[in-house]
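Recall that a protein's primary structure is simply its ordered list of amino acids. Everything else, from secondary elements to tertiary packing, is in principle encoded there. The following example makes that idea concrete.
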Amino acid sequence: MAEMADDVGEAAGRARRWFLDPEIVTAAFLAAATLLTAWTAYQSTRWSGEMAEAYSLASANRSESVRASNEASQLVAIDVASFIAWTEAIAAGEPDEADFLRERPRDEFKPAFEAWLSSPAEPGHRAPPGTPFNGFGYTLTAQQESERLATSADEQFEIARSANQYGDNYVLTAVMFASVLFLTGISSRLDLARIQTFLLGLAGVLLAAGIVLVAVQPKSIGI
């Protein structure tokens, strides 16, 4: 039993010496930092690409939203002009012209116009109060499309901002791992044990902190 205990103690001592061997620690730090630097550089590039794509989509959707909004404004102007022409025909006592205009509104305007005409008129008035453009279901497909595209543009912009932040975070970790490479490389050229231990300890702290940051960051994988 005593011999077995001695063998175990000797093996544990060799393991501790192996684990604390500066050359082995240096090699492990260099290998880990090199691989992690490459990984973080790859992730930074990937997130930069996603940021650029999202910004591009946001810009395109914003432009299309403005185009659709302009189209909606033009259609509103047409409907308003048609409605004003109808009211002027009614006021001028020209029923034939009024009937002609009533039968030919735009398809999107007609339901609201008919709903407005079906509403009760105020006493002493020939037409209902207000206009068909408020409270009678007047909607424009172009305006709805403009709002949808504007919302999509805002979402893509937020995606781009997040991707930019993720890319910056990976750049930070790449700097940390590069610092590990530098400190580890410097320590291997020094003969002073205390300074060598200090530099390796500092490199170990940076390496551990960088690994934690990489672990909590979202990953972008592509082929």
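Residues 22-91 form the longest helix (70 residues). The two ends are 58 Å apart (CA to CA).
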